[in-house]
């Protein structure tokens, strides 16, 4: 058995994808040339429908990582990865019902604008720096296949169509790539099943190889993948990616109404499930095909998920290019490739990085939306605490890998390989380890986000009370999501108490929006952060018949 490289037709298809992507950018550059405004570029004029946005959301965060990483994960560790459907469900519900309404109704073009409205510029800039770090590190997940050529070719093409066509080009390119992914997966599933004796035979061989042991109820947080690490830790990890990530929210607020934005998220959930199922079955087919001669342990390939994975930086480039020069951003991304390659497989590396940065960011936005008494000092202190904790556990795990009993893959065979090519994969050396290495540093990588998020929230609440909590009457109700209403619906007294002084009692949120002026400022400055007050005194665009919000009326609103 020989390792195969790209053939002529592979390069033809690869080039065709680049040409079509560039063509989409050119099309929108010409079509929208008379609407060349920053709002049109960043949020597509807020006139997108839910269909292409749903496809774009799915393709954005389930493209390279899933196509390359998930089948490898299933091949090595079994089909327990399918349990991520639980995480995805919780993530979409929380995003659409908790985070999205606040972001959409505030008329922002960036999630970091929210942080300035809720806290101040210092918190906004701190979060922006973390986002840049997360994106640069995430875009450094590279491995195999003509590394430098892939990096430069993909980087040039992505920058080209993003710069020319803006968000509309990104969304429609993602939609096209989503279709390509589905077709590719179906091809693999049909051809792979046929070459390996049919789907029933694939499942039988996977079962014999212990790949179908899916549900593990072990509550040990040190175990790499169990029902609890995936459903709980995975929810925190992906909520940091979906709920408060600029790339996700930017797509959602580009929709023409809030109803369309929510539909985009829920239809995206269907896409996530489809891609997940396809990826898992692809991994089972891989095991059926290579069960007697594993190409990794036999030395045919250098990594278990060898291929090219250039992180989905094309979307983030639109935002970061305004903060960093494009050749500089590329250098930083490439520099991170080496570090990312040492974090494990593609999926583990990507989700570890997102967890390290996304968890504290999730905690920061949760402080702003759910805890009205938290002040900017608590928010900033919580963010620093969360980042410290998540980086501490992740770096510790990098220096002292978890015991192989917690993370070592299922058995792989090389019985039918040429013996001259076989190499032995030995567990990592665990000598001279401190006690903390077998506890704190051995935590499942899916809990990195939970550590950062909970650390941020707890520290933020404590610091706010120590330094003097935010007065409720100084907080715009539109910047707070009163989740306490769900638990105190039976008592107006307790609801008012949980509002912490925020003036939700001036009518319901929708009544306020329907009347066109949710919150009138008093003598006190609402934000006390130097922001202009005019942008928060009127929130038009609410349609009482559709019970949704239209962003067109927000076009003339200014916040700075």
From TrEMBL:
Identify one Pfam family in the record: SSF
In its keyword annotation, does this UniProt entry include Membrane?
yes
Q: What is a single cellular component term in the Gene Ontology annotation? A: extracellular exosome
The GO annotation for biological process reads: sodium ion transport
Q: Which GO terms describe its molecular function?
A: lactate transmembrane transporter activity; symporter activity
The record lists the membrane-crossing segments as 12-30, 50-69, 81-104, 125-145, 151-171, 178-194, 226-244, 265-289, 323-343, 349-371, 378-400, 445-466
| Localization per Swiss-Prot or TrEMBL | Cell membrane
- Lineage top rank: taxon: Eukaryota
| Coiled-coil parts of chain | none
Q: What is its main location?
A: membrane
Report the membrane topology from the UniProt record.
Answer: Multi-pass membrane protein
**UniProtKB keywords:** Cell membrane, Ion transport, Membrane, Sodium, Sodium transport, Transmembrane, Transmembrane helix, Transport
Family that this chain belongs to = Belongs to the sodium:solute symporter (SSF) (TC 2.A.21) family.
Question: Entry's PANTHER family?
Answer: SODIUM-COUPLED MONOCARBOXYLATE TRANSPORTER (PTHR42985), SODIUM-COUPLED MONOCARBOXYLATE TRANSPORTER 2 (PTHR42985:SF15)
Name assigned to this protein: Solute carrier family 5 member 12
Q: Which organism is it from?
A: Marmota marmota marmota (Alpine marmot)
